[in-house]
């Protein structure tokens, strides 16, 4: 039955014109992604999309591509990709191109061979509030640029912040910011359900992604980086209720080693009422960012938990000697 439905869907697609099959204005439409790119190793397998390394045909520069299946038929006006593909900032990974096929959307961006934020925390020799404040400043710079161009991240998780080394200095870069600006309301609902704690209260009330919802997510991210835990626990329904009620506690043992300025910064980001929540510009002026007023105590317990949950997996290439041995074995088998 499933095979018949797949054949029917394929037949319906063949009967549609390219413009009817196109979901994103300004995208490159091809029959197969492999007509213009060579797919390489799988980087990440997700519930809603997969990420691969890739290269343009006859080119050596490595890119990363997020492969998103089209579910159903497009029922909303075309999303325009031009405002997203034109972004260029030191704290953003450059989005190179959006490619469409009849059944998939491919978001092609620069590939950075570096750890994500959580992995970087695990590598840090001595982990303190200073490190988080320093990282947060770079995140704010990227968000400021995006918000000035009416682009919102929508998935500000530690895994979507990667570290690039530039002249022996760590530069934080935001990745995966295109998806929330191009996806439908149904896809937004999927994102919300996948990471309930990151869901800003206004999203639960039916509002779209905004600069304010990015700031809520930054608050959740900083909360986690400081304590290795999230502020809301329980079933998804209970988490959503706590978010809407603003039930956040800062009196647990996890906060004993956090400065008053650190608590203030997080609490002002996690305001239920949008007008009370810090904007990017207000966040730059907060003492925890501007004056760097924080405790020098190490956050070793939080660091250990984050490192354990987000290990670095080192890619290994075949040893030439091993490769030769395998070839010899094949020759022997053929004999």
Q: Tell me, rounded to a whole number, the average pLDDT.
A: 82
CATH superfamily of the domain at 117-309: Transferase(Phosphotransferase) domain 1
Content of β-strand: 15-25%
Instruction: Report the structural category.
Output: alpha+beta
Short description:
With 335 residues, this protein is of the alpha+beta class. The chain has helices spanning 2-15, 18-21, 82-85, 117-123, 129-148, 179-182, 185-194, 201-204, 211-227, 236-245, 260-269, 280-285, 287-290, 300-309, 320-334, and strands at 24-25, 28-29, 37-45, 50-56, 62-69, 79-80, 95-100, 104-110, 161-166, 169-174. It has a domain at 117-309: Transferase(Phosphotransferase), domain 1 (Orthogonal Bundle).
Features of the shown structure:
335 residues; 41% helix; disordered C terminus; six-stranded mixed sheet; Transferase(Phosphotransferase), domain 1; 10 strands
Give a verbal description of the structure.
The chain has 335 residues and is α+β, with helices and mostly antiparallel strands. The chain has a domain at 117-309: Transferase(Phosphotransferase) domain 1 (Transferase(Phosphotransferase), domain 1), CATH 1.10.510.10. The chain is 41% helix and 16% strand. The chain contains 15 helices and 10 strands. It has a 6-stranded mixed beta sheet with strand order 2-7-8-5-4-3, with no helix packed on it. A hairpin with a 2-residue loop joins strand 9 (161-166) and strand 10. Helix 4 (117-123) crosses helix 14 (300-309) and helix 5 runs antiparallel to helix 9. The radius of gyration is 22 Å and the shape is globular. The chain starts with a helix and ends with a helix. Residues 316-335 have low confidence and may be disordered. Residues 324-335 have a biased composition (Acidic residues). Residues 315-335 are annotated as: Disordered. Residues 37-289 form the Protein kinase domain.
């Amino acid at each position: 039955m499933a095979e018949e439905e797949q054949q029917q869907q394929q037949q319906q697609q063949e009967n549609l014109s390219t413009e009817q099959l196109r979901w994103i204005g300004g995208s490159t439409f091809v029959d197969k992604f492999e007509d213009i790119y060579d797919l390489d190793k799988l980087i990440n397998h997700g519930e809603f999309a997969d990420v691969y390394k890739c290269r343009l045909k006859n080119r050596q520069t490595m890119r990363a591509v997020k492969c998103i299946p089209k579910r159903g038929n497009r029922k909303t006006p075309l999303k325009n990709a031009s405002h997203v593909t034109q972004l260029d900032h030191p704290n953003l990974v450059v989005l190179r191109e959006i490619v469409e096929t009849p059944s998939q959307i491919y978001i092609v961006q620069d590939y950075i061979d570096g750890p994500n934020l959580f992995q970087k925390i695990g590598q840090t020799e001595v982990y303190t509030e200073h490190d988080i404040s320093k990282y947060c400043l770079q995140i704010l710079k990227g968000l400021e640029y995006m918000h000035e161009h009416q682009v919102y991240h929508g998935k500000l998780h530690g895994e979507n912040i990667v570290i690039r080394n530039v002249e022996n200095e760590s530069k934080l870069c935001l990745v995966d910011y295109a998806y929330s600006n191009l996806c439908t309301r149904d896809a937004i609902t999927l994102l919300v359900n996948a990471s309930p704690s990151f869901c800003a209260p206004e999203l639960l009330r039916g509002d779209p992604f905004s600069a304010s919802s990015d700031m809520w997510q930054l608050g959740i991210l900083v909360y986690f980086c400081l304590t290795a835990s999230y502020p809301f626990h329980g079933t998804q329904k209970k988490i959503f209720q706590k978010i809407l009620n603003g039930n956040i506690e800062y009196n647990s043992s996890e906060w004993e080693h956090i400065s008053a300025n650190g608590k203030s910064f997080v609490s002002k980001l996690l305001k239920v009422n949008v007008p009370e929540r810090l904007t990017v510009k207000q966040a730059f002026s907060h003492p925890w960012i501007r004056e760097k007023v924080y405790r020098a105590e190490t956050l070793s317990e939080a660091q250990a938990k984050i490192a354990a949950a987000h290990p670095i997996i080192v890619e290994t290439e075949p040893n030439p000697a091993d490769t030769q041995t395998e070839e010899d074995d094949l020759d022997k088998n053929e004999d």
